[in-house]
Amino acid sequence: MHVLIIGAAGMIGRKLAERLAKDGAIAGNEIAKLTLVDIVPPAMPQGHSGLATSFTVDFALMDAPQALIGDRPDLIFHLASIVSGEAEADFEKGYLVNLDGTRRLFEAIRLQGTSYRPRVVFTSSIAVYGAPLPSEIPDDYITQPLTSYGTQKAICELLLADYSRRAFFDGIALRLPTICIRPGAPNRAASGFFSNILREPLAGKEAVLPVSEDVRHWFASPRAAVGFLLHAASLDLERVGPRRSLNMPGLSATVADEIAALRRFGGEAAVRLIRRESDPIIERIISGWPRDFNVRRAQELGFVADTSFDEIVRAHIEDEMDGTGE
Amino acid sequence: MHVLIIGAAGMIGRKLAERLAKDGAIAGNEIAKLTLVDIVPPAMPQGHSGLATSFTVDFALMDAPQALIGDRPDLIFHLASIVSGEAEADFEKGYLVNLDGTRRLFEAIRLQGTSYRPRVVFTSSIAVYGAPLPSEIPDDYITQPLTSYGTQKAICELLLADYSRRAFFDGIALRLPTICIRPGAPNRAASGFFSNILREPLAGKEAVLPVSEDVRHWFASPRAAVGFLLHAASLDLERVGPRRSLNMPGLSATVADEIAALRRFGGEAAVRLIRRESDPIIERIISGWPRDFNVRRAQELGFVADTSFDEIVRAHIEDEMDGTGE
Predict the structure, then answer these.
(1) Between chain A and chain B, how many beta carbons pairs sit less than 8 Å apart?
(2) Which segments of A186-276 does DSSP mark as H helices, in order?
(3) Which residues contact A303 (CB under 8 A, 6 or more apart)?
(4) To probe the interface with A, which of B114, B140, B156, B293 has the most A CB atoms within 10 Å?
(5) Per-residue pLDDT of chain A (326 residues; tens, 9 = 90+)
(6) Nearest-neighbour CA in chain A from B316: distance (Å)
(7) Interatomic CA distance for residues B171 and B163, integer angstroms
(8) Cα(B260)–Cα(B266) distance, integer angstroms
(9) Taking the CB of residue B241, how many other CB atoms lie within 10 A of it?
(10) Beta bridge partners of B247
(11) Measured between beta carbons, which residues in chain B are less than 8 angstroms from residue A148?
């Protein structure tokens, strides 16, 4: 099969590409061709079979999606998007990339005709939800975003469901939890500290905690996120029915739970590297975010979450620190 | 104030234009100019003040919305859309008119700049909901449509909320119940019989009832619908908050309720004009439709529904039959 990853240079895209190159197959189907696309050059995965090719393409360009679909990939992972902060700061760019780019991709598939019906796995976000929210969000709760990014994701979900219902493709949208521990340098996204307070102390560096320890949030490790994408790639979508957007299972945990896990892996020395510096703006932003979900539906469909922060920290040490801790 | 009605030749648009021309004002604000637009020539309302003008414009044309917004109407009623059946039969036309047309209208407003922030009243539909549905749909139930029409309406609702949040305009979307009694000739929409079995017998004509009498549905009279639009035009939207799509209050009633009202106005002779002709296809379509809503929110905001089918039949006799019954 031919697999296309749009957004292959991103954190999840890169890990997905590495995993596909390593496995060489999805659910027993050999990957004969792996095409990696992003606006910056995607890294070629280590140990790939020689069949991977990469393209550097601005997804927002009018004819980019059409060019990508021309040779009819069987499986399309669409992970490309402008992030939340940028979509809020640049209204036109957010809609151009996150909505128009995605819609043109869907249209390019439709216009191939009825002989072509690929699987499309789209990464959506819990940003489709906006306050007020119940303490545990059920699957049938309204998607009423409070950002342009969340609006664009919610619209793409609706399009994906309609294009799937009409059999133009077979799509599934995964609403990913906040990814933790994000590898790489600390970032200044409002959610960044959730990763920073683990990743930095584990590497012997200081990190800032801007909220209180009782703040609860919804997490998945990068490893779990890649697992969701792979499962979605081969899942029987007849079982999913017409509601094609799924809240992925996650770990509902507090900052205190994170710190307890850090203590088990890094000791008191690591915990002491967390500097408490209250930030009322971040406290306020976080207060409108989802804290917990009822994900019975996704679990019944076979999606598997991390079960503890120990598991999340262990995955980080194995995948990002060569299994050695510091 | 300058009022623009897009979709002024439709059933609701025509009644709204007549009402505005008769009142000459909205919530005490004099209507200095009334612009009526539709793809077929809108009828000039009787007794208008001389300030009404009409345009025949295909809303789906690229620059039509921009032309309509050029002289900055203060209040825009956007009622124009391809109906459900046509949007399902013609995928491209449905998206072109219902989504792209609406988005271009919103964009034309945004591109006027920050000195222009009109009120936009948009008619959405309960077609944004798809089965499975709770017996009484709450305001925070997921909008998961099962038609392209419902998808397009749900997307426009999301856009309207985001454009309003960013203060490009001040928008509100009204999800109208099924309008009953629709004036005019019987149509073959799946919902047509709800009106046919009242309107036709009241006029001494036969009508077909394709479902059983215990079928429950959600209704508003044309008069109530015009009332919703007028109320939305002057409502303080600060009170509505960021969730700008409202389920309008309606009357949850059964076919038996309809027939009982018909009996009170037209006697047994009228009821005998209903011919029972079971149609499994219509039964099946109807079974996926909403039956009842919790509309506390809309009621608290001052929207007022019909309270009985007697009221609905009486409004029809007064507004469509010169108050004379047959």
Answers:
(1) 57
(2) 192-202, 222-234, 255-271
(3) A227, A228, A231, A232, A246, A248, A249, A295
(4) B140
(5) 999 999 999 999 999 999 999 999 999 999 999 999 999 999 888 766 677 888 898 888 888 888 899 999 999 999 999 988 889 999 999 999 999 999 999 999 999 999 999 999 999 999 999 999 999 999 999 999 999 999 999 999 999 999 999 999 999 999 999 999 999 887 767 889 999 999 999 999 999 999 999 999 999 999 999 999 999 999 999 999 999 999 999 999 999 999 999 999 999 999 999 999 999 988 888 888 899 999 999 999 999 999 999 999 999 999 998 876 54
(6) 35
(7) 8
(8) 10
(9) 10
(10) B175
(11) 162, 166
With tokens 């209180």, the residue in question is: A212
Residue B311: burial class (beta carbons within 10 Å; 0-12, 13-18, 19+): middle
Which amino acid type is present at position B97?
V
At residue A135, the 3 state secondary structure works out as coil
How many angstroms separate the CA of residue A127 from the nearest CA in chain B? 13
Question: Residue A277 corresponds to which tokens in the numbers above?
Answer: 């510096």
> Per the CB < 8 Å rule, is B161 touching A151?
yes
- Choosing among A111, A129, A136, A142, which should be mutated to test the B contact, i.e. which has the most B CBs within 10 A? A142
Residue whose entry in the numeric block shows the structure tokens 């991977």:
A52
Please, are residues B326 and B267 in contact by the beta-carbon 8 Å criterion?
A: no
Q: Please answer yes or no on whether A158 and B161 come within 8 Å at the CB atom.
A: no
Domain A192-218+250-292+306-320 has CATH 3.40.50.300: no
CATH number of this structure's domain B192-218+250-320, picked from the four choices 3.20.20.70, 3.90.25.10, 3.40.50.10490, 3.40.50.10540:
3.90.25.10
**pTM across the whole model:** 0.95
How far apart (Å, rounded) are the C-alpha atoms in residues A120 and A232?
Answer: 9
Alpha helices in A251-308 (DSSP H): 255-271, 280-287, 296-300
Q: What is the DSSP string of A302-321?
A: T------HHHHHHHHHHHHS
Q: What is the CA radius of gyration of chain B?
A: 19
Q: Which positions of A are catalytic? A: 149
Summarised one tens digit per residue, pLDDT across range B192-208 is 999 999 999 999 999 99
Encode B32-44 in three state secondary structure.
CEEEEEECCCCCC
CATH assignment, A2-176+221-247: 3.40.50.720
Identify the H or E element spanning B255: helix B255-271
Count of all residues that appear for chain B in the document: 326
Write down the ipTM of this complex: 0.94
User: In whole angstroms, what is the distance from residue B204 CA to residue B316 CA?
Assistant: 15
**The two structure tokens encoding residue A34:** 């792996």
